[in-house]
Design a protein that fits this description.
homodimer, 20 helices, 8 strands, 4-stranded mixed β-sheet, two-stranded antiparallel sheet, about 5% strand, about 450 residues, alpha+beta
Chain lengths: ~450, ~450
């Protein structure tokens, strides 16, 4: 690609200009096979967490609102099958996809990039009648745009209190939608500009329904930006890098060169991991350690006498809740997650239910957990020692937790997670069908079949 | 009011808590007569600029989108009479009300508070079937909330590049809607929280369609926040003052005490002025000076040889576009507005048309304008000297421009502005009817008649 061709303006800064070129000109043939494969894994996982999250209270309330607001029947809300406009579907999907805190994480920036991007692209693809390959390409573009926007802003943006999934997510949603709508470069600049000037979301709302609300808004705002741009609505051309644009207003020290460094060659998608457990990623190495000890040594909960876990200091800073009383608090209690993993051998959303939190075995084991912060450890590591009443010392050393770059979640685990989320909602056969359909997505002429199978029959 | 009663939580900071009390408990009887009168002036002016802006390209494009997106018939878009959901109406009204850059300005913060607030409240009042007094009360509450949020953030927020009308406007829209929906204190906290976490808008987009887009989003986002809160959707309780809330994330040096200082006693409404000219308020003192020179001395455009205008530095920073090519650029060219005032003696939206921008007289006079930034001047002042070919030196010294606090726009000017905007769209009789209906708003049992008369017959 040559960013200087076909667009005679100097009103767009260089990195944004290259990004716009990428959004407008990337074709399916430009995607390495590994990007296609990883995209399909992420799309499947997105469907799983969305369907699995469909009965959460936040989702039910938002659905009441969307039904009352109404809208043209352009696309489909999974599970309920409501037909409404794509903005409404994107809002719902963003909430559904993020409400369990179980969607993917881009490690360098803590961006959960797939949910805002896919919540926009699934209904847009359905509405436009585009192919599975079109969706994969738009997703890869949208995710990359979101991740690179996040990198350009990181870490000051997040540290200030911005929920980067809401802010950079909207840019990615607009980029992918612009690609599907086949916008030209100037319209794409407007789509990015309108997404940027709507970008929002504060970390204050972590732990409330408004965390996932912000992700739903990222998806629907990104769609709105691209749709308006497609009709000729304009914005400033330099909405990201301009003097009063997103980076200047919402950044601190920013790195605009991240927008296009090795763009189309290095894919940030591979820095993003699927979550094996529905809680903060910082807890995952310790949970992996607990699972390994259980799998290799099968200690009975009643026999456990001591648990010592050495972790990165951030684990204690973020998830050191001692006595979780709700499922949400359970997600911020690494001791509980270790205990649940050791006692139950499973950690799915249902395992954060009150009866698990209060189960005598789990509560007893949780109280045995002793955590040590070790600042020499990377965030991906944890080292656990369990001592049992029969004198055994069981150890597990996790260097790269499951789902982190370098240790991707195996396909069997991905499928088990999907079934665990989807079976209770749609039944196991439908879940299996969806796995097959997403696996064949790059040869599907439309997403109609997938959408149809996300709906309860 | 005693903020400590009826709400036993320490999770809301004191100033926000007092603001929530004001939102929830203010009754029509709490509004001084002058507040009611000023509210009616602002509501009339809002209808005028909205109807006058209804044929702008940004509005037409947005309307195409809204029609395609569809929605339940809850309320009415003025002029076209489209019936759609209140979120859509709010989006349209926010764009319509701001697109001419002709809506009111809160001088201390450059907030255009009425448009985002009224764009939410007019459709909500229509939908709920509430009275004119209910609308006035909700408007006074919503405006006050927006203005005090803006004051709490000013000046760092605006200086950083935030369009405060988009950000604080959303908070005001949510507050007024929460009042109309009769939300309790906790729900109101959630409405404010959800508005805060959606708050957005960058000054980069000044001069493009996305400036008014951001105001439309402020209205519709504020409505969405309050509607979701009314159904039980929650957020953090302390979305404004909390550690990762709006003020911390989007402010610099902030002044949360502005939220409730003399609240209910001092009304920021009186620090807001109606605009006599459809362009940035910073240009108004200079335009007033040009009009005064024309009115007092009647110089022929061809005789003008030099124009020197001394202004606050912000005038040059914001509106120093030398060669405006479009009407929008004309609004950001103080030299053009001075020239048009001197040459034509009128400055309405039609005076920013291409034939005026390119008119030889106007173009010649524009090029004669020499601006001097004087940081000792307040923003309300301008001092102009015009030299003519017959040796005259014509001067005008404006200390408080028309429409600024201390020099409110006279009612005759308000009505002339309204007719100038509305007559071309709805005809003079309908415009006159609307003036009468808004004047009697505090005795109207509903807003149905007003809404009906905003629609072309």
């Amino acid at each position: 690609m040559n960013p200087s061709t076909e667009w005679a303006t100097d009103a767009v800064s260089a990195h944004t200009r290259a990004l716009i070129d990428f959004i407008c000109t990337t074709t399916p043939a430009d995607l390495p096979a590994a990007v296609v494969a990883e995209s399909k894994r992420n799309i499947l996982d997105f469907l799983g967490v969305s369907i699995g999250g469909s009965d959460e209270r936040a989702v039910r309330i938002a659905l009441e609102h969307v039904r009352d607001a109404g809208g043209t029947e352009q696309a489909t809300i999974p599970v309920t099958g409501d037909r409404t406009n794509i903005g409404n579907v994107a809002l719902m999907l963003g909430i559904m996809g993020h409400v369990l805190d179980f969607d993917d994480s881009h490690l360098p920036t803590i961006l959960h990039g797939t949910t805002p991007v896919m919540s926009a692209l699934l209904p847009v693809t359905e509405w436009l009648g585009r192919s599975g390959t079109d969706l994969i390409t738009a997703y890869a573009i949208g995710f990359e745009t979101a991740a690179r926007t996040a990198l350009a802003l990181h870490p000051d943006h997040y540290d200030t209190g911005w929920h980067v999934t809401g802010t950079a997510g909207a840019i990615g949603a607009a980029a992918g939608t612009a690609h599907l709508l086949r916008l030209g470069r100037e319209e794409t600049a407007y789509a990015l500009g309108m997404a940027a000037t709507q970008a929002a979301g504060h970390r204050e709302h972590f732990g409330s329904m408004s965390k996932s609300f912000g992700v739903g808004k990222a998806g629907s705002n990104g769609v709105l930006a691209a749709l308006l741009a497609s009709r000729g609505y304009d914005s400033a051309l330099d909405g990201l890098e301009g003097r009063r644009g997103m980076f200047a207003v919402m950044g601190g020290a920013v790195h605009p060169e991240a927008l296009d460094a090795d763009l189309g060659k290095r894919w940030e998608l591979f820095q993003s991991g699927l979550k094996p457990y529905p809680c903060g990623i910082v807890t995952h190495p310790a949970i992996d350690a607990a699972f390994r000890i259980r799998a290799e040594h099968h200690p009975e909960p009643a026999d456990i006498e001591a648990i010592e876990v050495r972790v990165h200091p951030l684990v204690l800073e973020l998830t050191n809740k001692h006595t979780p009383r709700t499922g949400l608090e359970g997600k911020f209690s690494v001791a509980f997650t270790i205990a649940a993993a050791l006692c139950r051998g499973r950690l799915m959303p249902v395992d954060f239910a009150p009866e698990v939190l209060d189960h005598p075995d789990v509560a007893r084991v949780r109280q045995l957990v002793r955590l040590t912060a070790d600042s020499t450890l990377p965030e991906s590591e944890a080292h656990a020692v369990v001592r049992t009443s029969d004198g055994r010392t069981l150890t597990a050393d996790i260097e790269v937790a499951t789902g982190m770059p370098g240790n991707p979640m195996p396909e069997s685990h991905l499928h088990a997670k999907f079934h665990g989320l989807v079976d209770p909602v749609l039944g196991s056969p439908a879940a299996g069908t969806l796995i097959g359909l997403v696996d064949a997505l790059d040869s599907a002429s439309s997403v109609t079949e997938i959408v149809r199978h996300t709906v309860t029959s």
